[in-house]
Automatic annotation (TrEMBL):
CDD domains: Ribosomal_P0_L10e. This is 60S acidic ribosomal protein P0. It comes from Aegilops tauschii subsp. strangulata (Goatgrass). Belongs to the universal ribosomal protein uL10 family. GO terms for molecular function: large ribosomal subunit rRNA binding; structural constituent of ribosome. GO terms for biological process: cytoplasmic translation; ribosomal large subunit assembly.
């Protein structure tokens, strides 16, 4: 028979486990675990087994463990995690690719009924079609202003109806109707809300950026620096090529308007003479 551990022993074991994870891992995904059941969490753990570990626990206990670990090791990087422990969240420690781990976690979403009092995470639309309910249920639809008709002895919804808007609380009538229709409109799973990587914290949207996106953003930034530098005549690496080119254009313009000569200017003068001759020839032919 297994010996039941006391609360103090459980806390010590949890502290040791978390400290070990902080020693071994440098990448952590912070995930919101609202409406995620234990069975679903177990499936997620199985799916991530190998290079990732899911750790759940009380935020106060995790904060204390992180603080103690930072004091013992002198590593203050993980203190950034403490500020992110708000609400029902868990930590996913990983040695794998952050984007791939997030995508793997997103696979484990399960459908859920619309329970009374829940805040709808998405819009809920009841599709048109036969409901399979008998005509005695018509009054139930009328209360919710859902147009129906009787077709072959059953109630049929005639048009799509937006039953619940995102952010609204689910009422008893809406919950009962969706249950009668067998609709499970919501899906829940771990939702990554923040990413920690070697002391840096950023939004999970950053993981979606490709090399092309980064190059576009870098080029846009360089362009803005160059434009500002040119506007205020302040030399920078980004503006230097444009400044040299503009200066050369000015030198060339002066050479063309005066007798000043150098190789490239002489070539341009010859080109201009040819163009002028051609223009005169064309005008003569037209006249």
């Amino acid at each position: 028979m297994a010996i039941k551990r006391t609360k103090a022993e459980k806390k010590i074991a949890y502290d040791q486990k978390l400290c070990q994870l902080l020693e071994e891992y440098t990448k952590v995904l912070i995930a919101v675990a609202d409406n995620v059941g234990s069975k679903q969490l177990q499936e997620i753990r199985k799916g991530l087994r190998g290079d990732s570990i899911v750790l759940m626990g009380k935020n106060t206990l995790i904060r204390r463990c992180i603080k103690v670990h930072s004091e013992k090791t002198g590593n203050k990087d993980f203190l950034e995690l403490s500020n992110l422990l708000v609400g029902n969240v868990g930590l996913i420690f990983t040695k794998g690719d952050l984007k791939e781990v997030r995508e793997e976690v997103a696979k484990y979403k399960v459908g859920a009924p619309a329970r009374v009092g829940l805040v709808a995470p998405v819009d809920v639309v009841v599709p048109p079609g036969n409901t399979g309910l008998d005509p005695s249920q018509t009054s139930f639809f009328q209360v919710l202003n859902i147009p129906t008709k009787i077709n072959k002895g059953t109630v049929e919804i005639t048009i799509p109806v937006e039953l619940i808007k995102k952010g609204d609380k689910v009422g008893s009538s809406e919950s009962a109707l969706l249950a009668k229709l067998g609709i499970r409109p919501f899906s829940y799973g771990l939702v990554i809300c923040n990413v920690y990587d070697s002391g840096s914290v950023f939004s999970p949207e950053v993981l979606d950026l490709t090399e092309e996106d980064l190059m576009d953003k870098f080029a846009s930034g360089v362009s803005m620096v160059a434009s500002l530098s040119l506007a205020i005549s302040y030399p920078t690496m980004a503006a230097a090529p444009h400044m040299f080119l503009n200066a050369y254009k000015n030198v060339l313009a002066v050479a063309l308007e005066t007798d000043y000569s150098y190789d490239h200017a002489d070539k341009i003068k010859e080109y201009l003479k040819v163009i002028l001759v051609l223009q005169c020839s064309v005008r003569t032919m037209i006249s």
